[in-house]
């Protein structure tokens, strides 16, 4: 069983922000597989699944997402080789992505929470580029990730999601 978890922040206030790219992707991916999310209070998450795949969207804030990840991994006995954490990444330019195991951004509190809760860095990361700052627009990363995308940036994201899904599908059965 593969487990894909999209990191983000709950609530409409954070919809269409860079920090919610993980949640945005898993919404797209679940829909592409005709899977429907249902709330699982035990794990503080929305969960969609079939016989070979589970997709989760934690309802806690990004920086506390590790507890949900640990709960799902332990309850469903998920091997870390089958765990994919999807998140925004300011080390990558908007429109880029990387799927890597055991490595990620220099500093990401959501990923740090997952690593700390699991006691391991040995899981897959789907790193979605979020940085579109220019030299004259150098605001802090903490502020920037909580800002909504422009219409142009949303188009870039929407065009990128199928490419990420295709790469992921190469490794995950339908």
UniProtKB/TrEMBL annotation:
It catalyses: an N-acyl-L-alpha-aminoacyl-tRNA + H2O = an N-acyl-L-amino acid + a tRNA + H(+). Its EC number is 3.1.1.29. Pfam families: Pept_tRNA_hydro. SUPFAM superfamilies: Peptidyl-tRNA hydrolase-like (SSF53178). Gene3D superfamilies: Peptidyl-tRNA hydrolase. It is an enzyme of class 3 (hydrolase). InterPro entries: Pept_tRNA_hydro (IPR001328), Pept_tRNA_hydro_CS (IPR018171), Pept_tRNA_hydro_sf (IPR036416). One of its GO terms (molecular function) is peptidyl-tRNA hydrolase activity. Belongs to the PTH family. This is Peptidyl-tRNA hydrolase. The lineage of its organism: Bacteria, Katanobacteria.
């Amino acid at each position: 069983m593969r487990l894909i978890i999209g990191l983000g922040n709950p609530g409409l206030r954070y919809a269409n922000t860079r920090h919610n790219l993980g949640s945005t992707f898993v919404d797209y991916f679940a829909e592409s597989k005709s899977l429907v999310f249902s709330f699982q209070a035990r794990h503080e998450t929305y969960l969609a699944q079939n016989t070979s795949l589970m997709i989760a969207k934690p309802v806690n804030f990004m920086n506390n997402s590790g507890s949900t990840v640990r709960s799902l991994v332990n309850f469903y006995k998920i091997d870390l080789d089958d765990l994919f954490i999807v998140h925004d990444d300011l080390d990558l330019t908007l429109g880029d992505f990387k799927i890597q195991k055991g490595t990620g951004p220099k500093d990401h509190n959501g990923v740090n929470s997952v690593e700390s809760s699991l006691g391991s860095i040995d899981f897959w990361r789907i790193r979605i580029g979020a940085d579109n700052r220019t030299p004259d627009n150098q605001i802090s990363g903490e502020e920037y990730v909580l800002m909504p995308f422009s219409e142009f940036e949303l188009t870039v994201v929407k065009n990128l999601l199928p490419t990420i899904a295709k790469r992921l599908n190469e490794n995950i059965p339908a």
